[in-house]
Amino acid sequence: MSTAGQDLLEEFRRQRRSGDPRLTPEGREILTRIVMGDLADEFADSLAEISASDPLLGGGPEDRPD
Amino acid sequence: MIVVDEYLAIRSLLGMLPDVLPDEQLAITSSAHWRLLQRLHAPSGGQLSQALAALPTPDREVLRFPRREVLEVVDPRPLLDEAAQIAARFGNTGLLIAETAAAGLAHGRQLWFGNPRNIGTRLREIADDLNIAIHVAA
After folding, report:
1. Which strand ranges, in their side-by-side order, compose the sheet holding B133-136?
2. How many domains does chain B have?
3. Nearest residue to B85 (alpha-carbon basis) of B125, B130, B134, B120
4. How close does chain A come to B118, measured CA to CA in Å?
5. Smallest Cβ distance to A18: which of B7, B15, B95?
6. Could you list the residue range(s) of the whole structural domain that residue A44 is in?
7. What CA–CA distance (Å, rounded) separates B80 from A60?
8. Between residues 18 and 47 of chain B, which touch chain A (CB distance below 8 Å)?
9. Does residue A5 form part of some domain?
10. B42-52 pLDDT tens trace
């Protein structure tokens, strides 16, 4: 028998795992390509480029203290 | 709370998380969210930009303002001092690495990535030194 608390925790878990219902089928297809499909490597390159082009975000040449 | 990268953040929005990921609230750092938003708002050319440009408005809203019950954006303010100490100790890391390491320290000494290419050598070294476990769930 589940308690009200257990039921609520299960509802939270379901919300976390079910994704955002606002996504459209077209958007889901595009985002899936970006993180799990043919655009995944280009996405990684793109994120690295953003870091490299912004010294505050990505830092500069390695300069470790002795 | 588990700190994840941009890949797993988007997979959480899709409801397509790997089974190995612990069943906890997921969060992305503000600097990682910033990178995602930069790419969304300032496309750079190529197939990726064409795909992002084709995203319908509701889907762009999901990336811009994720629902907290699905994906949280970590508040950077409580982490800033530790992030600055990490940057000072390890030398010019930049905010992304420093904030990610500080968030990993604050949230279970673990970081989860959806693509190994998104980790980087310096973060690996710093995480190892700080005893933060790096997991890849591709």
Report:
1. B72-73, B26-28, B2-4, B110-113, B133-136
2. 1
3. B130
4. 6
5. B15
6. 22-53
7. 19
8. 23, 25-26, 31, 34-36, 38-39, 44, 46-47
9. no
10. 877 789 999 99
Question: CA-CA distance, B129 to B14, in Å (whole number)?
Answer: 33
How many structural domains comprise chain A? Answer: 1
R_g over Cα of chain A: 20
Q: What are B77's two structure tokens?
A: 């303010």
Does residue A31 belong to any structural domain of this protein? yes
Asked whether the beta carbons of A46 and B43 are under 8 A apart, the reply is: no
Is residue A26 included in any domain, yes or no?
yes
Contact A15 B55 (CB under 8 A): no
Give chain A positions within 8 Å (CB) of B34.
57
Token reading at B55? 């995203």
Sites in chain A below the pLDDT cut of 50: 63-66
Task: Report the alpha-carbon distance of residue A49 to residue A18 in Å, rounded.
Answer: 31
Q: Residue B86 sits in which domain range?
A: 2-136
Whether the Cβ atoms of residue B110 and residue B3 lie closer than 8 Å to each other? yes
| Secondary element (H or E) of residue B134 | strand B133-136
Q: In this prediction, does ipTM exceed 0.90?
A: yes
Whether B96 has its CB under 8 Å from any CB of chain A: the answer is: yes
